[in-house]
Amino acid sequence: xxxxxxxxxxxxxxxxxxxxxxxxxxxxxxxxxxxxxxxxxxxxxxxxxxxxxxxxxxxxxxxxxxxxxxxxxxxxxxxxxxxxxxxxxxxxxxxxxxxxxxxxxxxxxxxxxxxxxxxxxxxxxxxxxxxxxxxxxxxxxxxxxxxxxxxxxxxxxxxxxxxxxxxxxxxxxxxxxxxxxxxxxxxxxxxxxxxxxxxxxxxxxxxxxxxxxxxxxxxxxxxxxxxxxxxxxxxxxxxxxxxxxxxxx
Amino acid sequence: xxxxxxxxxxxxxxxxxxxxxxxxxxxxxxxxxxxxxxxxxxxxxxxxxxxxxxxxxxxxxxxxxxxxxxxxxxxxxxxxxxxxxxxxxxxxxxxxxxxxxxxxxxxxxxxxxxxxxxxxxxxxxxxxxxxxxxxxxxxxxxxxxxxxxxxxxxxxxxxxxxxxxxxxxxxxxxxxxxxxxxxxxxxxxxxxxxxxxxxxxxxxxxxxxxxxxxxxxxxxxxxxxxxxxxxxxxxxxxxxxxxxxxxxxxxxxxxxxxxxxxxxxxxxxxxxxxxxxxxxxxxxxxxxxxxxxxxxxxxxxxxxxx
Lengths: 249, 306
Hints:
The complex is a heterodimer. Chain A is α+β, with helices and mostly antiparallel strands. Chain A is built from seven helices and twelve strands. In chain A, strand 11 (181-191) and strand 12 (194-207) form a beta hairpin. The longest helix of chain A is centred in the C-terminal third of the chain and has 27 residues, at 222-248. The radius of gyration of chain A is 24 Å and the shape is extended. Chain B is mainly alpha-helical. Chain B has one domain (2-144, 154-291). Chain B is built from ten helices and five strands, in the order ββαααααββαααααβ. In chain B, the strands form two sheets. Chain B has a two-stranded antiparallel ribbon with strand order 1-2. A two-stranded antiparallel sheet of chain B has the order 3-4. In chain B, a hairpin with a 4-residue loop joins strand 1 (2-5) and strand 2. In chain B, helix 1 packs parallel to helix 9 (242-265), helix 2 packs antiparallel against helix 3 (50-74) and helix 4 packs across helix 8 (211-236). The interface between A and B is large, with 64 and 60 residues. Strand 5 (68-79) of chain A pairs antiparallel with strand 5 (298-302) of chain B.
């Protein structure tokens, strides 16, 4: 029934005049022991059935988002002469990483209504409801400020190269302090600030090799992992002692 | 060389970690403190998540203390009997401490309590040790040579269950050492350290043990308390990062060996005054952080339903 409804809806919609064809420099990111961050090149073309419509601004917006997770934001205040955490707001879901790149200033390529609907800019990508503090906006701003400071949230206005209104490309830098999960890349095509096409693809970010093995062991066989850590510690302590005794002889 | 830590999920410079481990290891060997009260704040500073820093630090202390104890055992400066008595108290104490810690966590503000604990205890111990060792040095330089003084008899010596501690040259009741162990265990669990910096002065001033024996005995006790803590963190919070631990302990064990040798060559008073200064410096830094308005008033923590 739903499928049928969807089918009719599809028919009712006008055929897309412009569509995104996409390529990625890598379709997954492997975190190894020497991982120092990674660049992802997002590139593609706009396929058209009709000639380029004139007198309207074409916009390309690329976003890459890490998995959503709840975050506790705490604020310090002075009590009895010392600075302590007083208020806290829990942000229900904030992406662990978020980068948004555009080919022109944000206000030229995206209308507020569309931003609200597709949750494109950083403040919109963060979901915070039911905060009990009056100025909860300040907490969300602080979250964005702190994450932007460590390169986890990036606003890259004008970082998308658009050539001949057809070919586009941009590079997104993933920092070294990444969390694992499925990262989502969204590419939006806009005309006069309205989204006319959207393309979604996932980029899995995963630990591999020794990193993967240790992480699994720590979570699945915690007792064995703990004992292993302790034996390494004891062995290293003994080894150093023995080595120094040898050296002194 | 950057290296990605699997549990902490951050990338850090391997040589920085080796260096930190080495410096803290030297101090650990010299003074018989685990070095946790220095290393844990340092790890926060380079961006390791606090939960991982505290748990991994416990594991690293096991290694540096074990290395230190072996060096002390060779010189017969470990009172195994006293160490065991202290350990019994220590394990009881850390069990109690973890219960208390979880209770305070439920109330919130556990972070503040930890910091206040650091400031109060480090400040108290640092000041006491500093004054005492200054007096000792002044006395010895006036007299030209240290005059052996008779150990004072206080209330400690009038308690039941007396036991002979040959290595320490003591014949005292087991009650004070067990109580010292319990107290240190509680504090160690709350503050996430081995507790050597409280244990060492307590052994010197409360139990009247000779300084040379104190260091080895303290290290001996710390091994077991921190091993217990490591296992607890590994099985309940999954926050022990073995890669981070290995990097820290490679530097740490080498440092501890060097430190122990430096410690032997120095006079007890000098050793104590240095430890006192270090304790006061850390205390001052923490107090400063509490009193001065921080640059960033907001901080991020893991959400979820706690």
